[in-house]
Amino acid sequence: MTSPLFHADLTVHTQSHNYPIVITENTAIESNSMASQVASYITGQQVLIVTNETIAPIYLKALQQPLEAQFTVQVCVLPDGEQYKTQSSINQIYDVLMAAHFNRDVTLIALGGGVIGDMTGFAAASFMRGVNFIQIPTTLLSQVDSSVGGKTGINHPQGKNMIGAFWQPQMVLADMSTLKTLPARELSAGLAEVVKYALIMDAEFLLWLEHNLPAMLALDLAILGEAVKRCCQYKADVVAQDERESGVRALLNFGHTFGHVIETHEGYGNWLHGEAIAAGMVQAAELSQKIGWLTSDDVARVKRILSLANLPITPPPIEVQTAFDLMGHDKKVKHGQIRLILLKSLGEAVLTNDFDPHLLTDVLAKHAT
Ligand code: NAD
Ligand code: MG
């Protein structure tokens, strides 16, 4: 086994337990390294790998075969897509667990992007009132965001992520070499969340990204690994302070209220999550400018970095009233007043409802037709 070029270990501190995020650059397919890195976090004899039809042909064997030498391994291969992030997919996972007579000792392993991670986590949170699970995120988005922090869940036909649980994994293994097979559009979608961290917490990281984004797009795995490490550290710090999103964790939803309007209006899956968040962050920046917090140069900089990442900076046309209605279903609405995460400056975010609602209408109207 060749030694990885990039390697970093972080620890996430939560109320239930602390767990490691291992960010590394293995040759995921050729070596047994994926399996050997997760094996020590499997406590019982039973393992269920949950993945999908796209990822299974590329990575499943490299993970499954070495684990079979040590554990009783079952596999659940789900169809690929956000539209399958449903209760019926969760039932399929339970079906495999029940048929195998697996019990509390089972460890579920999520091998895939955020969709597989969220569903596997939710199945783990609910099966027998909670069993262990491990995240192996294979998209940039899931490496920097969804695999860290313990939010798990599925969609309801009337709303995204409406059913779920907080459930922390035993470990997260982010193998940067899996990004080599990720479609370019998905890589860009993940970059939206990376840019998000810079915009809400670290102006210096924004500068770093402005310099390093081309290398990331060219799949420089060490640079990608460094970016993932920074993002996971930001998220781990926030989660340690506020696991259940009663305060600072909400800031991670920057761009998401606007983005959820786009995702819901366009139908799940047509706009990628990261693409919707990119356009949503531009809207949030525009509102921040109207309030007087950002300059027009700041907003231009937000648009430039997102364009550099090949992301959309304009939402699709959505009627103002429709947008308001869709925001009403968002979990960030409290007492009928829309609270949004806005930027005080580049690198500093606030959750606030203290703005003239007409300014929000103006931002929505700008893109209504
Ligand atoms: P995804 O899981 O749908 O993956 C994107 C696509 O890439 C899929 O087609 C997948 O099969 C494919 N793919 C994944 N890894 C691959 C690889 N290495 N090579 C080739 N193809 C690969 O999408 P995503 O962007 O990873 O995740 C989006 C989901 O994450 C949404 O459902 C969102 O709600 C959720 N999310 C959750 C949290 C959280 O805190 N739990 C945070 C952010 C997003
Ligand atoms: Mg997100």
From TrEMBL:
UniProt keyword annotations, A-Z: Amino-acid biosynthesis, Aromatic amino acid biosynthesis, Cobalt, Cytoplasm, Lyase, Metal-binding, NAD, Nucleotide-binding, Zinc
Pfam families linked to this entry: DHQ_synthase, DHQS_C
Catalyses which reaction(s): 7-phospho-2-dehydro-3-deoxy-D-arabino-heptonate = 3-dehydroquinate + phosphate
Sequence positions that bind NAD(+): 80-85, 114-118, 138-139, 151, 160, 178-181
Compartments, record wording: Cytoplasm
Record domain 3-dehydroquinate synthase C-terminal: where: 190-333
Enzyme Commission code(s) on record: 4.2.3.4
Required cofactor names: NAD(+); Co(2+); Zn(2+)
Name this polypeptide is given: 3-dehydroquinate synthase
Taxonomic lineage of the native organism: Bacteria, Pseudomonadati, Pseudomonadota, Gammaproteobacteria, Moraxellales
